[in-house]
């Protein structure tokens, strides 16, 4: 149980284009989904928190107009990197918080998406 | 805000030996402490967690201890195997948002 998928697993795009990453909770409903960015040999940095049907909450320093988050349902959240630039190249990972009274704070992570902007 | 430190940053052990990774946190209100294992190119996998009302938790070869007074918690892996080699992250939270430690790269030498 508690499986989270991400698509695509890796993407290469040209500078200036937009890229959409999908995050799905496969066997549970997620009250909240989180988006992280991880640079090589570094820890996970939270970008934003999203709740189904409401606007995402972005961490300080994360541009909300550049990283668009949509949480359309209890099992799907999307992150769109708009007008991507080489400095946006990174490993993007989502996580989901199950809608369960037993685990209101546990996060299960997806496999990550490797974005390379040329 | 919360700050989580993790030591050591790298750890090499012989297969069959034990490995211990320690984390400290700064916010006494934090009440949930998960540990994640991340293999190269993959997402973090939850391996064990502990809540502030418990001092120790064990799951087969993995155990976690929590000292709320000292604000530190540790991951213990016994009888290490080569497949335990990975980066391990601790985290602390008092709600939904996690603060992660910087990670420990564990290498289990055959």
Please provide a written account of the structure.
Chain A has 118 residues and is an all-beta fold. In chain A, 0% of the residues lie in helices and 53% in strands. Chain A is built from no helices and 11 strands. In chain A, the strands form 2 sheets. In chain A, strands 2, 4, 5, 6, 9, 10 and 11 form a 7-stranded mixed sheet that branches. In chain A, strand 4 (30-38) and strand 5 (45-51) form a beta hairpin. Chain B has 110 residues and is mainly β. The model of chain B has no long low-confidence stretch (mean pLDDT 95). Chain A binds chain B through residues 4, 6, 32, 34, 42-44, 46, 49, 93, 97, 104-112, 114, and chain B through 32, 34, 36, 41-46, 49, 89, 93, 95-98, 100-103.
Given as residue ranges, the uncertain stretches of chain A (5+ residues, pLDDT < 50) are none
Rg over C-alpha atoms of chain A, rounded to the nearest angstrom: 14 Å
- Give the distance, in angstroms, between the N- and C-terminal Cα atoms of chain A: 37 Å
Quaternary assembly: heterodimer
Percent strand of chain A: over 45%
Q: Give the amount of beta strand of chain B, in percent.
A: over 45%
What is the 3D form of chain A? globular
Report the total helices of chain B.
0
Overall helicity of chain B? under 10%
Principal-axes geometry of chain B comes out as globular
Structural class by secondary-structure content of chain A = mainly beta
Number of continuous helical runs of chain A: 0
SSE order of chain A: EEEEEEEEEEE
Quote the distance from N terminus to C terminus of chain B: 41 Å
Q: Which regions of chain B have little confidence, pLDDT < 50, spanning 5+ residues?
A: none
Biggest β-sheet of chain B: count, sense, barrel?
6 strands, mixed
């Amino acid at each position: 149980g508690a499986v989270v998928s991400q698509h695509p697993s890796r993407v290469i795009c040209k500078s200036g284009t937009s890229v959409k990453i999908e995050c799905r909770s496969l066997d549970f409903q997620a009250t909240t989904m989180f988006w992280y960015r991880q640079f090589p040999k570094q820890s996970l940095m939270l970008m934003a928190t999203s709740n189904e049907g409401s606007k995402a909450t972005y961490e300080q320093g994360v541009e909300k107009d550049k990283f668009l988050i949509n949480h359309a349902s209890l099992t799907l959240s999307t992150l769109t990197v708009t007008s991507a630039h080489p400095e946006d190249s990174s490993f993007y990972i989502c996580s989901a918080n199950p809608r369960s009274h037993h685990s209101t704070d546990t996060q299960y992570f997806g496999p990550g998406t490797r974005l390379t902007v040329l | 805000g919360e700050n989580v430190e993790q030591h050591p940053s790298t750890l090499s052990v012989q297969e069959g030996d034990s490995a211990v990774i320690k984390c400290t946190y700064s916010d006494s209100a934090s009440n949930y402490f998960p540990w994640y294992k991340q293999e190269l190119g993959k997402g973090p996998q939850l391996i064990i967690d502990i809540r502030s009302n418990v001092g120790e938790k064990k799951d087969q070869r993995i155990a976690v201890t929590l000292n709320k007074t000292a604000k530190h918690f540790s991951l213990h892996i016994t009888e290490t195997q080569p497949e335990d080699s990975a980066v391990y992250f601790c985290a602390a939270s008092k709600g939904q948002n996690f603060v992660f430690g910087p990670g420990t790269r564990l290498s289990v030498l055959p």
